[in-house]
Amino acid sequence: MSVTGRYKDAWEGFWRDASHEPGAVFWDAEPALTAELHLALFEPHLTDPALPVVDLGCGNGTQALFLADRFPRVTGVDLAGSAIEHAERNDPLSRIHFQQLDAADGAAVQRLSAGLGDAQVYMRGVLHQCEAADRQPVADAVAALVGERGRAFVVELSEAARPVLMGLAQGPAGPPPKLRPVFEHGIAPGEMADAELGGLFRSAGLAVLASGELPLTTTEAGADGARIELPSAWLVVGRPSQIPE
To answer: How far apart, in whole angstroms, are the C-alpha atoms of residue 21 and residue 25?
Structure first.
């Protein structure tokens, strides 16, 4: 299964129009407020820190570049070729291998996995943006990539984030400047129940090793000047056989 042409076109258009300036994209917060916090939760669960890392849904590569400072081999993949163009521009030393990949395309994921072997996966804010029918294939992709020894860190907006986003979108002046392109390109977050998140990975053959809640910091400020934060839930998942006794 692969995503619809409309959905792919929406992301292509979004990244084609996105500014290259740091922090111009609504969710593109600096790693100190995102991946660095996530890594502190993720690292205690790694069975082999030397495994390659896949940033699944890497966008313009901001978080992948941070991960490349801490892991020996990082691959960034995204549905949109225009996102990969941003990411490659942001990586002038070519430390990371970036490639376009539809994570709901099982055959494409298997080819990537065959080249990497077992890997760690970092996935931030991908599933809630997926079409409902593509969420299980994406979770299956995570399972294929981690193999037997890898772990995955997954963070997604919780149900409580949607009313916050809708409130921002429906304000008197309309959506804030950095949120407006998200709606204009038709990639507003979809409905995903909090309980669905863990179930997707269990159905993919993975166990939930740890979970919690953590605000997802955006690059946009509210009327009070403070960064807008969205409620999110995180999971660490891996093969049940790899859970320590």
So the answer is: 9
